[in-house]
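Following up on my earlier thread - several people asked me to post the actual chain instead of describing it. Fair enough. Here it is, all 238 residues.
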Amino acid sequence: MTKPKVLVIIPARAGSKGIPSKNKKDLLGQPLVSFTFDVASRLGENYHTYVSSDDNEVIRIAGDFGIKNNGIRPYELSHDKALTLDVLHYEMLIVEKKLKLSFDAVMLLQPTCPIRNVDHIYDVEKLFIANNMQFSVVSVKQIDSEHPFRMKRMIKENILINYIDQGYEDMRPRQDLPPVYIRNGSIYFTPAASIRNKDTLVTDEAYGYTMDSLHSINIDNMEDFLIASYFRKAQNEN
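Reply from S.P.:
Thanks for posting it. Predicted structure:
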Protein backbone atom coordinates (compact mmCIF):
# COMPACT_ATOMS: atom_id res chain seq x y z
CA MET A 1 0.00 0.00 0.00
CA THR A 2 1.52 3.30 -1.11
CA LYS A 3 1.54 5.82 1.68
CA PRO A 4 0.45 9.34 0.77
CA LYS A 5 2.73 12.27 1.57
CA VAL A 6 0.66 14.17 4.12
CA LEU A 7 1.00 17.74 5.34
CA VAL A 8 -0.50 18.04 8.82
CA ILE A 9 -1.54 21.51 9.95
CA ILE A 10 -2.50 22.22 13.56
CA PRO A 11 -4.11 25.69 13.67
CA ALA A 12 -3.79 27.27 17.11
CA ARG A 13 -4.26 31.02 17.11
CA ALA A 14 -4.05 33.11 20.28
CA GLY A 15 -7.60 34.46 20.25
CA SER A 16 -10.78 32.63 21.26
CA LYS A 17 -14.30 33.89 21.88
CA GLY A 18 -15.79 31.11 24.01
CA ILE A 19 -12.83 30.50 26.35
CA PRO A 20 -10.00 33.08 26.58
CA SER A 21 -6.65 31.64 25.40
CA LYS A 22 -8.40 28.31 24.95
CA ASN A 23 -5.55 26.55 23.16
CA LYS A 24 -3.24 27.18 26.13
CA LYS A 25 -5.79 26.55 28.88
CA ASP A 26 -4.68 23.95 31.41
CA LEU A 27 -6.20 20.51 30.94
CA LEU A 28 -4.95 18.09 33.60
CA GLY A 29 -1.66 19.94 33.93
CA GLN A 30 -1.02 20.44 30.22
CA PRO A 31 -2.00 23.12 27.70
CA LEU A 32 -4.99 21.93 25.66
CA VAL A 33 -3.03 22.13 22.42
CA SER A 34 -0.39 19.70 23.73
CA PHE A 35 -2.75 16.72 23.40
CA THR A 36 -2.96 17.26 19.64
CA PHE A 37 0.78 17.90 19.41
CA ASP A 38 1.39 14.60 21.21
CA VAL A 39 -0.76 12.60 18.77
CA ALA A 40 0.77 14.30 15.74
CA SER A 41 4.30 13.67 17.00
CA ARG A 42 3.67 9.90 16.93
CA LEU A 43 2.60 9.68 13.28
CA GLY A 44 4.64 7.89 10.62
CA GLU A 45 7.40 9.35 8.44
CA ASN A 46 4.99 10.14 5.60
CA TYR A 47 3.42 12.83 7.81
CA HIS A 48 4.98 16.31 7.96
CA THR A 49 3.47 18.29 10.83
CA TYR A 50 3.41 22.07 11.33
CA VAL A 51 1.69 24.32 13.82
CA SER A 52 0.08 27.47 12.46
CA SER A 53 -0.15 30.18 15.10
CA ASP A 54 0.14 33.87 15.87
CA ASP A 55 1.22 33.01 19.42
CA ASN A 56 4.92 32.56 20.26
CA GLU A 57 4.08 30.51 23.35
CA VAL A 58 2.06 28.00 21.29
CA ILE A 59 4.96 27.73 18.84
CA ARG A 60 7.33 27.09 21.76
CA ILE A 61 5.06 24.32 23.11
CA ALA A 62 4.90 22.77 19.65
CA GLY A 63 8.70 22.68 19.54
CA ASP A 64 8.73 20.60 22.73
CA PHE A 65 6.95 17.88 20.72
CA GLY A 66 9.14 18.27 17.65
CA ILE A 67 6.38 20.07 15.75
CA LYS A 68 7.72 22.55 13.19
CA ASN A 69 6.44 26.00 12.24
CA ASN A 70 6.68 28.53 9.42
CA GLY A 71 6.99 31.51 11.71
CA ILE A 72 4.22 33.65 13.16
CA ARG A 73 1.00 33.46 11.17
CA PRO A 74 0.16 36.91 9.71
CA TYR A 75 -2.67 38.95 11.21
CA GLU A 76 -4.90 38.70 8.13
CA LEU A 77 -5.02 34.93 8.72
CA SER A 78 -5.42 35.13 12.51
CA HIS A 79 -8.55 37.16 13.19
CA ASP A 80 -12.00 35.73 13.99
CA LYS A 81 -13.21 35.75 10.38
CA ALA A 82 -10.10 34.24 8.78
CA LEU A 83 -10.93 31.16 6.72
CA THR A 84 -9.34 27.81 7.51
CA LEU A 85 -8.89 27.11 3.79
CA ASP A 86 -6.78 30.27 3.45
CA VAL A 87 -4.65 29.27 6.43
CA LEU A 88 -4.00 25.80 5.01
CA HIS A 89 -3.20 27.24 1.58
CA TYR A 90 -0.74 29.73 3.09
CA GLU A 91 1.10 27.10 5.15
CA MET A 92 1.12 24.54 2.34
CA LEU A 93 2.76 26.84 -0.21
CA ILE A 94 5.55 27.64 2.25
CA VAL A 95 6.22 24.01 3.18
CA GLU A 96 6.13 22.67 -0.38
CA LYS A 97 8.60 25.35 -1.47
CA LYS A 98 10.80 24.76 1.59
CA LEU A 99 10.90 20.97 1.25
CA LYS A 100 10.71 20.90 -2.57
CA LEU A 101 7.92 18.40 -2.08
CA SER A 102 4.45 17.97 -3.58
CA PHE A 103 2.00 16.61 -1.03
CA ASP A 104 -0.77 14.10 -1.77
CA ALA A 105 -2.97 15.14 1.14
CA VAL A 106 -3.46 17.80 3.76
CA MET A 107 -4.78 16.89 7.20
CA LEU A 108 -6.28 19.42 9.58
CA LEU A 109 -6.11 18.59 13.29
CA GLN A 110 -7.91 21.08 15.52
CA PRO A 111 -6.54 21.43 19.08
CA THR A 112 -10.09 21.58 20.47
CA CYS A 113 -10.40 17.78 20.01
CA PRO A 114 -8.08 16.37 22.71
CA ILE A 115 -9.31 12.75 22.85
CA ARG A 116 -8.59 11.54 19.31
CA ASN A 117 -5.73 9.07 18.92
CA VAL A 118 -3.25 7.87 16.31
CA ASP A 119 -5.41 4.89 15.30
CA HIS A 120 -8.23 7.23 14.30
CA ILE A 121 -5.88 9.05 11.95
CA TYR A 122 -4.55 5.84 10.42
CA ASP A 123 -8.11 4.61 9.85
CA VAL A 124 -8.89 7.84 8.01
CA GLU A 125 -5.72 7.47 5.95
CA LYS A 126 -6.77 3.94 4.90
CA LEU A 127 -10.17 5.22 3.79
CA PHE A 128 -8.47 8.00 1.83
CA ILE A 129 -6.17 5.49 0.08
CA ALA A 130 -9.05 3.06 -0.60
CA ASN A 131 -10.78 5.81 -2.57
CA ASN A 132 -7.74 6.54 -4.75
CA MET A 133 -6.73 9.61 -2.74
CA GLN A 134 -9.20 11.71 -4.73
CA PHE A 135 -11.81 12.56 -2.11
CA SER A 136 -11.89 14.08 1.34
CA VAL A 137 -12.43 11.99 4.45
CA VAL A 138 -14.10 13.79 7.34
CA SER A 139 -14.60 12.50 10.88
CA VAL A 140 -18.21 12.52 12.08
CA LYS A 141 -20.34 11.35 14.96
CA GLN A 142 -23.88 10.06 14.91
CA ILE A 143 -26.62 12.36 16.18
CA ASP A 144 -28.73 10.76 18.89
CA SER A 145 -31.14 12.74 21.06
CA GLU A 146 -30.68 15.99 19.10
CA HIS A 147 -31.95 14.48 15.86
CA PRO A 148 -33.06 16.97 13.16
CA PHE A 149 -36.58 15.46 13.18
CA ARG A 150 -36.89 16.69 16.77
CA MET A 151 -35.56 20.18 16.11
CA LYS A 152 -37.73 23.29 16.04
CA ARG A 153 -37.68 26.82 14.76
CA MET A 154 -39.38 29.69 16.57
CA ILE A 155 -41.38 32.27 14.61
CA LYS A 156 -43.44 35.33 15.49
CA GLU A 157 -44.31 35.28 19.18
CA ASN A 158 -42.52 32.11 20.30
CA ILE A 159 -44.53 29.84 17.98
CA LEU A 160 -42.76 26.51 17.44
CA ILE A 161 -42.63 24.86 14.03
CA ASN A 162 -40.71 21.77 12.92
CA TYR A 163 -37.26 22.53 11.53
CA ILE A 164 -37.83 19.70 9.04
CA ASP A 165 -41.47 19.67 8.05
CA GLN A 166 -42.74 16.10 7.78
CA GLY A 167 -46.33 17.18 8.13
CA TYR A 168 -46.62 15.74 11.63
CA GLU A 169 -44.88 15.69 15.02
CA ASP A 170 -42.37 12.83 14.94
CA MET A 171 -42.58 11.04 18.30
CA ARG A 172 -40.76 7.86 17.32
CA PRO A 173 -38.17 6.48 19.77
CA ARG A 174 -34.63 7.68 19.05
CA GLN A 175 -33.49 4.25 17.86
CA ASP A 176 -36.20 4.23 15.16
CA LEU A 177 -35.08 7.50 13.57
CA PRO A 178 -32.88 7.33 10.44
CA PRO A 179 -29.15 7.69 11.17
CA VAL A 180 -27.86 11.26 10.85
CA TYR A 181 -24.26 12.41 11.24
CA ILE A 182 -22.50 15.67 12.02
CA ARG A 183 -18.86 16.66 11.56
CA ASN A 184 -17.11 16.38 14.91
CA GLY A 185 -14.18 18.63 13.97
CA SER A 186 -11.51 16.08 14.86
CA ILE A 187 -10.00 15.07 11.49
CA TYR A 188 -10.17 16.56 8.00
CA PHE A 189 -8.11 14.62 5.43
CA THR A 190 -8.33 16.08 1.94
CA PRO A 191 -6.52 15.89 -1.42
CA ALA A 192 -3.65 18.36 -1.51
CA ALA A 193 -4.76 19.66 -4.91
CA SER A 194 -7.94 21.05 -3.33
CA ILE A 195 -5.87 23.11 -0.91
CA ARG A 196 -3.14 24.00 -3.42
CA ASN A 197 -5.76 25.43 -5.79
CA LYS A 198 -7.68 26.96 -2.87
CA ASP A 199 -10.83 25.13 -4.01
CA THR A 200 -12.33 23.63 -0.86
CA LEU A 201 -11.49 21.96 2.43
CA VAL A 202 -14.03 19.18 1.75
CA THR A 203 -14.53 17.83 -1.77
CA ASP A 204 -18.06 17.60 -3.21
CA GLU A 205 -17.90 13.84 -2.89
CA ALA A 206 -16.52 13.00 0.53
CA TYR A 207 -16.38 10.03 2.88
CA GLY A 208 -17.30 9.93 6.53
CA TYR A 209 -15.30 8.28 9.28
CA THR A 210 -17.52 7.66 12.30
CA MET A 211 -16.13 8.23 15.78
CA ASP A 212 -17.96 7.59 19.04
CA SER A 213 -19.24 10.45 21.20
CA LEU A 214 -16.37 10.23 23.68
CA HIS A 215 -13.63 10.60 21.07
CA SER A 216 -15.71 13.28 19.33
CA ILE A 217 -15.55 15.78 22.18
CA ASN A 218 -14.86 19.20 20.66
CA ILE A 219 -14.23 21.96 23.19
CA ASP A 220 -16.25 25.09 22.51
CA ASN A 221 -17.23 26.16 26.04
CA MET A 222 -16.43 25.43 29.68
CA GLU A 223 -18.95 22.59 29.84
CA ASP A 224 -17.06 20.82 27.04
CA PHE A 225 -13.80 21.51 28.86
CA LEU A 226 -15.03 19.89 32.06
CA ILE A 227 -16.30 16.83 30.15
CA ALA A 228 -12.97 16.46 28.35
CA SER A 229 -11.10 16.77 31.66
CA TYR A 230 -13.22 14.01 33.18
CA PHE A 231 -12.65 11.56 30.34
CA ARG A 232 -8.95 12.32 29.92
CA LYS A 233 -8.49 11.69 33.63
CA ALA A 234 -10.39 8.40 33.36
CA GLN A 235 -8.17 7.35 30.44
CA ASN A 236 -5.02 8.15 32.44
CA GLU A 237 -6.27 6.13 35.42
CA ASN A 238 -6.91 3.12 33.20
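The helical segments are 32-41, 56-64, 84-99, 118-130, 192-196, 222-237. That should answer part of your original question.
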